[in-house]
Each structure stands twice: as structure tokens, then as C-alpha cells.
User: Fold this.
Amino acid sequence: MSHLLLLLAAIGLDRVVGDPPWLWQRLPHPVVIFGKAIDLMEKRLNSAAFTPEERRLNGVFTIVTLLVVSAVFGMILSSIFRHLGLFGLILEIIVVAIFLAQKSLGDHVQAVADGLLRSGLEGGRQAVAMIVGRDPKTLDEAGVSRAAIESLSENFADGVVAPVFWYAVAGLPGILAYKMLNTADSMIGHKNERFLQFGWASARLDDFANWPAARLSAVLIALAAMLHLGAGAGRRSLSAALRDSGLHRSPNSGWPEAAMAGALDQQLAGPRVYGGVRVSEPMMHAAGRSDAGPADIRTGIRVFYAACSVMAGSVALIWLIALVI
Assistant:
């Protein structure tokens, strides 16, 4: 269980440093490399020359191949790091931190609140367009604020909790394979004509891989709400997650979003527009407030960071228990 200590160090490093722009302006981020590999295989194996059945099989082959390559590369890195002593431990901490998204996520969502405060609705729309796929021109201030909070909640699960979970379970092979899968889902896991068949396996596997993290993230948000906003907010958060998580179109995203909705006593989700297409979904925590603004975004960020701290404390507790046993 010694790798849990490395995980704690990586969580701390990501919390403080995040993704420094000066570094990734000079070097390609590993996720960018993952994306190029996915794009290369998609262009070769998802052409109109294939039947729908063949495209689905090609999609299965693509994601299985990419996951195996990622896991094997993780094993190779892990072996190399073990032979480098203290320097290897430091390198592994850095690699794990690269695949976490605490500070970068918090900073991007904070930029939405700052945009609203500095430049009004247009500033908020420009900032939120960087983190959500919906049409920002259809959003008023409350819509921009809710979109930012929803993105914060959803990405807490798959950008923070899930990589932490899979590193804790399977080390570097686990976190690299998870990030490859999550990148593939974001690129080809769409239910449109181009990707419906080819991206089917990636979307289904991503749902499976995020199942534990989504539910853990709801518990972490509820605990953070209790610590930061009071026992009532914690109970409301957990109740909303248990009651309303199934209202979301995703089998996983509804858990952290509903938990955050309850924590902030605010309606989230509901009808929205993607690429000119209206998606009609029920509001999660419909009894909450319908208004939202920069102050609510900032409260959500504080809950998010508190949840990250609870997560780190949980990893430390598991390490201590394993040490005693």
C-alpha cells in the first residue's frame, strides 16, 4: 500500500501546482498524445467504407488496443521508476499529479465567476464556453452559473476522484488506462451518426469505469457540504444524490451534480441547448433556488476543494489502516 503515500503526495502537488501553462506550451500534455492516437485509429477504422457492424467491431478493437497499450506503458514506467530510487518516486508523483485536475478545474470554474463580475453576462458566457459543450448564447446569468457548477461537479468525479480511484486500485497502469478511456469517451463516445457505432464500446466502458467514482464523489460532496456549510447542507446533499441522480441522462454524472445541487440548495440540470438541439431533462433538486450567480459558483468551488480534502484524508486513513493490519 506504499503507493498510497505517493498518491497523497500527487494530490498535494496537483492542488498547489495544477497544470502550469508554461510547461504545456512547450511540451505536449499526455492527454493530447492520447487524443492523437485515438484520432489516428478513428480516421482509419471509422470510414464510410465499413458497415455499421464493422464500425462497432472496429471501435471495440480500437479501445481495447489503446487500453492495453496504456496499461503496458504504465507497467513499464512503474518498473523504471522502481529502479531509480528516490528520483523514481518523485517522477511517479509528478506523473500521477499530471493526470489529476483539482487546481485546473477550480481555476477554470473560478474564471466564470470572475468573467461575470468583471465583464457581465458576455464575460461569463466566454469563460463558460471553455468548459461546457452547451451553446453559451442561450444562457442568462443564472444559466451560465448553473453550467459552471454542473461542470465543476461532473468533472470532480471523472477528473479527480476516478483517476485517484484507479491509481489506488491499479497503480500507474490503472490511471493511464483510465485517462485513455476517458479521453476516448470525450472524443468518440457521442451518440451521433459518426460515432454511434464506432464509439459504442468506449462509451460503455467509460460508464463502467466511472461507476465507483461517481458514487464516491457524491458522498465526498455531501461530507464536504456538512463540514463547510453545516449538517443540514450535508443531509440535503446526500438526499438529493439518492433521489435525483437518476434524472440525468448519464448513469454517472447525476450523482455528483445532484449532490452539489443539494449542497447549494440550488436547481441544476434541466433543459439546455447543445449545438442548436434542445435537451429536455428534469431539474435535479427541483425544490432548490432557481437563481444563481457568481457567489454561488464561489461557494461551489469551496465545497469542491473541501471534497478534495476529504478525499485526500480518506486515502490517508486507508493507508493507516493498511499499515496497522
